[in-house]
Amino acid sequence: MEHYTIDLTSQHPNSQPLFDNFQTFRASYKLIDDQPIHAFFIVPSQLPPGPRPLLVRFHGGGWVEGEAEASMRPFLLELALKHSAVILTPDYRLRPEHDFPDSFDDIKSFWQWIEDGSAQRLLSTSLPGIIVDADSLMVAGESTGGCLAVQTALLSLTKLPIKVLFLQYPTLDIGEHIRIENPSELMLKCAVWADRTPYSEVEAVLNRLKKGKICTRAPFGTRMHLLQALVQAGKFCDFSGDRELLDPIRALEHAGPLPPILLYHSKEDEALPWQHTDAWASRLKTLQPDVPLYLTYQTGSHVFDVNDTMATPWLKEPL
């Protein structure tokens, strides 16, 4: 466990000044061949006495890029300050250096690290008197992170009682999103597939990879071409057999009771069709009609909420 300095250039304008109100720590929650996978505690500098709620956030990036502490949404930081909550956000293994299921294996390890109290003990050692109440838990995530958040509940990756799922334009029907009948059809699905990227781009990355080296971090905006190449080559993920439930639209069919859900998506999303969210939400209402669901559709690009605050009109009511 060590103090960590947030790179403010990785944050959006409304988030940058908010970090003056937080302390950040980095800890390893898992080792693979003696290489750490880290999680980051983002802790309000001023906390009242008593156990503090836990806000877990999973980052997006299409499974090919992203850094746990980067691109924190202003409203999540404000929400943590309002409720004196501790934010905890993990890295996880990325494609194409690793297989698709590896990210889920890492997230399961991350939850076990919290469940056995290791995460809480590390924080209380660095900040004596800080008690994290893991039973007062919100799980959030954007895009790919939204998939990991909802799969935490759908696949029971944790035994902790989730109070609410906060899903930001999540990937909810991966199989349909990457299904290929012919290349032209794939490009019509969403604008992000419009540019053709040869699979040789992926091969070049794998050829440069040192044997045994893991990849858990890549700056946002640097590797999306690798996702294009993987999908266009039909090599992103195989959902056959026991991998079927890695897709949230399939996992929903077998899920136990779910917590309340806040779910939103842009109807102008160029990366993930909003119709996938709509279909998933409709199926949820059929299978678990008693689950409180706050569903709203907005406008703008895929990550339209990057600079939004709690004062943003459409966010004020649910938050």
UniProtKB/TrEMBL annotation:
The keyword Lyase does not apply. SUPFAM superfamilies: alpha/beta-Hydrolases. It holds the Pfam family Abhydrolase_3. InterPro entries: AB_hydrolase_3, AB_hydrolase_fold, GDXG_lipolytic_enzyme. Keywords: Hydrolase. One of its GO terms (molecular function) is hydrolase activity. It comes from the Eukaryota. Residues 55-195 form the Alpha/beta hydrolase fold-3 domain. This is Alpha/beta hydrolase fold-3 domain-containing protein. The lineage of its organism: Eukaryota, Fungi, Dikarya, Ascomycota, Pezizomycotina.
